[in-house]
Amino acid sequence: MPQFNINNLECVRHNNILFSDLTFTMKDGDLLQIDGTNGSGKSSLLQICSGLIRPSKGTIEWNNEDIYEYHNSFHKDTLYLGHKNAIKSSLTIKENIQFISALGGVIENQDYTEILNTVGLSDTEELYAGNLSAGQQRRLSLSRLLMTRSKLWLLDEPFNALDKHGKRMVENIIINHCNIGGIVIFTTHQEMEFNQYPLKSIHLGNNNV
Amino acid sequence: MSESINIFFVMLKRDLILAMRDKTDFINSLIFFIIIIVLFPLTFGSDAKLINELIPGVIWISALLATCLSLESIFRSDFEDGTIEQITLSRYPLTLIVSAKIIAHWLTFGIPLIIISILMGLIFSLPVDVILALFITLLLGTPTLSLFGSVMVVLTIGLRGSMLLSLLILPLSMPVLIFSILAVNNASINQSIIAETYFLGGILLLAISLAPIAASAALRIRLS
Amino acid sequence: MYKWIHQFGSPKYFYNISLVLSKWIAFVCIACFIAGLYGGLVLAPADYQQGDSYRIIYIHVPASWMSLFVYLVLATSGAITLIWRIKIADFVARASAPIGASFTFLALTTGAIWGKPMWGTYWVWDARLTSELILLFLYLGYIALQSSFNDKRIAARAGAILALIGVINIPIIHYSVEWWSTLHQGPTISKLDTPSIHYSMLIPLLLMLAAYKTFYIYVALMGVRNEIIESEYNTAWVKKLLDN
After folding, report:
1. Which residues, other chains included, contact B31 with Cβ-Cβ below 8 Å and sequence gap of 6+?
2. Fewer Cβ in 10 A, N or C end of chain A?
């Protein structure tokens, strides 16, 4: 049954029409890649999908409910990862993870070592997040993918600042999520190959798709 | 439901820890507060009677200005590092989370402010009634300033021109200032301050009910 | 009913209708001004207490009424913007703010001018004057906030929040003369009671109020039309309009 419907979306930023008449549907287990050059509206499209920005035209439905009317249930099912990492430099990694997991609705006082190992930040619990490198901070931010109950993932350039291992790690997390019926939409400006999984694609550029 | 209460305390604890780890923001404002109060008597000379009359008002005005200064820290870092988007899109009510942040601000800034004000009152040998009036009005007034101020902070975050925040806070804080000064003046002539206290309490209740909702709406507006 | 609101909210329809209305409004405005000023300055008898200097009431009182009225328009448009996101409401609010600020400033200054010969002072910190001053700051803050944003839609919605919070001030201004004993006299005109002011003075006052109100509508509509053209710049009908 269709889960995430986008109908006739139009986005206008700074008096420029970035894209118009955009329509697509996502079902359980779908994986969608949005690519395009810088400034083509990838982040804006993702922010519209998350409900942060409103499109100038068009509707978005989750489970056949308009996401603006039923935004509570929509937000429960959605995870958004933006460009910025949303971590605090003055907090330790453990405190950051505790906050992320609480915000994601996951039970606290878990053992976080497994999560830290998965994102490649083993044995760093007591370090201050401000002392990490950019790539490590991105990994910390990505830990939210492992501590969420949300079905729909909207990831803005999740592979940024990561090395080859990091990219593969994220790929695996995403594929695992899709395998259990989750829906993932991500943006990227790099060439990606998802070998093990069918990948839908939207290219934003001069004229949409 | 209990999950929502849980996130309230998680947020509160997080903001308190952050304020403790990075003390510069609120310590700067408290020092600013003290400096204004200390500088004022220099201009009065040694006319003790004049100082006694004016110092309570000076304390209150300094409190207002120092609060303006300290308010920006509530949301600025969350805006800069993207936490605001996560909070807005989370499954928990935004008003609850915003309330936690405002309360954390008052706990780290408002309470030391009140304590310092009482100390100032003692240093200037103000009569006990006046110090009590100062205490009560600040106790009711500083949360109100934190609440209304945070709405204005959200509306003006990141905009050029830092005076805009003060301009917006001014109209909303004038009633609080007026009633507080009335109360302090009444206390200094041994009149009851109960009426002004009721007014301040009423304004505080109004702020408690309106400000978190307004701040959440303003957050959503600023993010779009 | 909804169709009517929808039509009214369409910028093109609003633009054309307001052009037609504006001609009539200007006519009514000028007529009321002339009648009101003549009635107030010439026909109405001198006050037995204040003599002829009370006549500034015909400028001062309508100005203060309008300062409150325009703020209510501001707050209502703000609410409409937040709830239904109708663009015309954005424009109305943006255009009304400077006019409301001017009325408030006029009320404060004519009040001060009246106050000096009457009560010996330009200003006193009573409830009504202080809250009117707060109103002026609210207007100025609103205008400053709106001009700080590049995106006008966000500006309108941010301003709406500010306007709605400040609405608390309006009942305070209005009822301050009843709640506290102040320099101002009590209310002379209320909806349900017979007014305590003589008819020969009342009629010019109401005429001046009508003049001020139509003046406000005329100027506000001009502002709204400007905003419409600016925002609908890319549409065909505006391009045709500007070519002519």
Report:
1. none
2. N
Residue pair B116/A120 in contact (Cβ under 8 Å)? The answer is no
Q: Is B172 on the interface with C (CB under 8 A)?
A: yes
The pLDDT of residue A207: 46
Measure in Å the smallest separation between the Cα of A12 and chain B Cα atoms: 12
Chain B residues near residue C158 by CB distance under 8 angstroms: 155, 218, 221-222
Q: What are phi and psi of B99, to 5 degrees?
A: -60, -40
What CA–CA distance (Å, rounded) separates A103 from A96?
11
C74 touches chain B (CB under 8 A): no
Asked if residues A154 and A183 have their Cβ atoms less than 8 Å apart, the reply is: no
b/e burial code for range A116-134 (CB count within 10 A of at least 16 → b): bebbbbeebeeebbeebee
Size of the B and C interface in Cβ pairs below 8 Å: 60
Asked whether C41 and C58 are in contact (CB, 8 A), the reply is yes
Longest CA pairwise span in chain C (Å): 63
Residue type, B69: L
Closest to C148 measured CA to CA, from B217, A12, B222, B164: B164
Cβ atoms within 10 Å of C137's Cβ, excluding its own: 20
Check residue C140 and give its pLDDT: 95
Q: Look at chain A and count its residues.
A: 209
CA torsion C126-C131-C134-C135 (nearest 10°) is -140
- Least Cα distance to B150 among B200, B101, B108, B201 occurs for B101
Q: Residue A119 is which amino acid?
A: V
Q: CA nearest B77 in A: which residue?
A: A88
List, by residue range, all CATH 3.40.50.300 domains of chain A.
1-77+151-209
* Cβ distance of A91 and B18 shorter than 8 Å: yes
pTM, 2 dp: 0.88
pLDDT digits (tens, 9 = 90+) for B54-109: 899 999 999 999 998 898 888 988 999 999 999 999 989 999 999 999 999 999 99
The CATH number of A1-77+151-209 is 3.40.50.300
Q: Which of A89, A103, A108 sits opposite B90 (nearest CB)?
A: A103
Asked if C149 is an interface residue toward chain B (Cβ–Cβ < 8 A), one would say yes
pLDDT digits (tens, 9 = 90+) for C22-36: 999 999 999 998 888
Per-domain residue ranges of chain C: 2-243
Smallest Cβ distance to C165: which of B156, B214, B222? Answer: B214
**Strand-strand pairing, A31-36 and A183-188:** parallel
Are B91 and A76 within 8 A, CB to CB? yes
Please give the Cα distance from B208 to B148 (Å, whole number): 9
Dist CA C198 CA B127 (whole Å): 53
Among A78, A84, A90, beta carbon nearest to B18:
A90
Contact B131, B52 (CB under 8 A): no
